[in-house]
């Protein structure tokens, strides 16, 4: 019986390592193709968001460097097609000028437009002054549009204003946030409870 020549151990080890490297490189080449390094990112669905944030907090400063408003939400999803941001459970604290008490705005949903100049709040919208003297005054509606740069909010929907001892219902409302002035537009009805 012929004898098989004995190959030195270091040559066998080097051969196995070389074979493993060649095998690894060939698998890597087929998994990571040079075409996958294309710089242009194509979004095929225009409704596809380009980023999202969860449990976010955004503090917007005015020109003087003091807080204009603070926006928190459970989730914020930025839409690439119209440059808007959709909000889930937004909570906005809108600070008044001249150290006035802030306003609290809450809703189930919201949309911030591309320039941030308009905030659309929808579904169970709450608007409440954080003034301790008026802490029991609550305004609720189904939709409210806030214009932060103008310190103004409005709705064409029905509005319910509740105080400690009265309830006012109306259709349409304009709120001037800096001075706390509020205008009810039509079909105003009030109910006052005497204690």
UniProtKB/TrEMBL annotation:
Compartments (UniProt record): Cell inner membrane
Function: Involved in the assembly of lipopolysaccharide (LPS). Required for the translocation of LPS from the inner membrane to the outer membrane. Facilitates the transfer of LPS from the inner membrane to the periplasmic protein LptA. Could be a docking site for LptA.
Keyword match Transmembrane: yes
Family listed: Belongs to the LptC family.
Membrane topology note: Single-pass membrane protein
HAMAP family: LPS_assembly_LptC
A cellular-component GO term for this protein: plasma membrane
UniProt KW keywords: Cell inner membrane, Cell membrane, Membrane, Transmembrane, Transmembrane helix
GO molecular function: glycolipid transfer activity; lipopolysaccharide transmembrane transporter activity
Pfam family, any one: LptC
Biological process according to GO: Gram-negative-bacterium-type cell outer membrane assembly
InterPro entries found in the cross-reference section: LipoPS_assembly_LptC-rel, LPS_export_LptC, LptC
Positions of transmembrane segments: 12-32
Name recorded for this polypeptide: Lipopolysaccharide export system protein LptC
Oligomer and partners: Component of the lipopolysaccharide transport and assembly complex. Interacts with LptA and the LptBFG transporter complex.
């Amino acid at each position: 019986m012929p004898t098989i020549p004995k190959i030195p151990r270091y040559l066998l080890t080097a051969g196995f390592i070389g074979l493993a490297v060649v095998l690894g490189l060939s698998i890597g080449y087929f998994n990571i193709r040079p075409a996958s390094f294309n710089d242009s990112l194509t979004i095929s669905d225009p409704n596809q968001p380009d980023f999202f944030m969860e449990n976010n907090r955004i503090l917007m400063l005015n020109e003087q460097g003091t807080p204009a408003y603070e926006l928190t939400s459970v989730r914020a999803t930025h839409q690439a097609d119209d440059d808007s941001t959709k909000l889930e459970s937004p909570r906005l604290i809108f600070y008044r000028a001249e150290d006035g008490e802030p306003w609290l705005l809450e809703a189930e949903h919201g949309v911030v437009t591309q320039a941030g100049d308009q905030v659309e709040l929808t579904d169970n919208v709450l608007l409440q002054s954080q003034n301790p003297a008026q802490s029991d005054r609550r305004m609720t509606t189904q939709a409210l549009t806030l214009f932060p740069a103008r310190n103004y909010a409005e709705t064409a929907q029905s509005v319910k204003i509740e105080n400690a001892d009265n309830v006012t219902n109306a259709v349409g409302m304009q709120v001037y946030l800096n001075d706390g002035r509020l205008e009810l537009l039509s079909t105003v009805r009030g109910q006052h409870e005497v204690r």
